[in-house]
Amino acid sequence: MSNTATTTYTVGGMTCGGCAGKVKGLVGGVAGVTGVEVDLPTGRVTVTGSAPIDDAGVRGVVEKAGYEIKD
Ligand SMILES: [Cu+2]
């Protein structure tokens, strides 16, 4: 039960610290996620949590908030 995984996404549409904080909060609320790092200049969002990461859940909350997952 201690298996953890890290997945990195590139998120488009984040233009300021508010966006970054919003994405961080939303992704952090996905079941199993224990850590979220957002790099605003590159749009890189690194998600850590219990394996497997809920990929559909992460994509869902990000896209629902109006941002675009590029990969
Ligand atoms: Cu913003």
Salient structural properties:
alpha+beta; Alpha-Beta Plaits; 31% helix
Explain how this protein is built.
With 71 residues, the protein is α+β, with helices and mostly antiparallel strands. It has one domain (4-69): Alpha-Beta Plaits. 31% of the residues lie in helices and 35% in strands. The radius of gyration is 11 Å and the shape is globular. The relative contact order is 0.32. Copper (II) ion binds at residues 15-16, 18-19. Residues 15-16, 18-19 line the site of copper (II) ion (CU).
Low-confidence stretches: none
Q: What's the number of structural domains?
A: 1
CATH class: Alpha Beta
The largest pleated sheet is described as:
4 strands, antiparallel
The CATH topology is what? Alpha-Beta Plaits
Helix and strand element order? EHEEHE
Query: What's the CATH architecture name?
Result: 2-Layer Sandwich
Estimated share of beta-strand residues: 35-45%
Q: How many β-strands, per DSSP?
A: 4
Helical coverage, percent range: 25-40%
Q: Terminal Cα separation, in Å? A: 28 Å
Whole-number mean pLDDT:
96
**Total count of helical runs of at least 4 residues:** 2
**Widest sheet, order of strands:** 2-3-1-4
Q: Give the class from helix and strand content and strand pairing.
A: alpha+beta
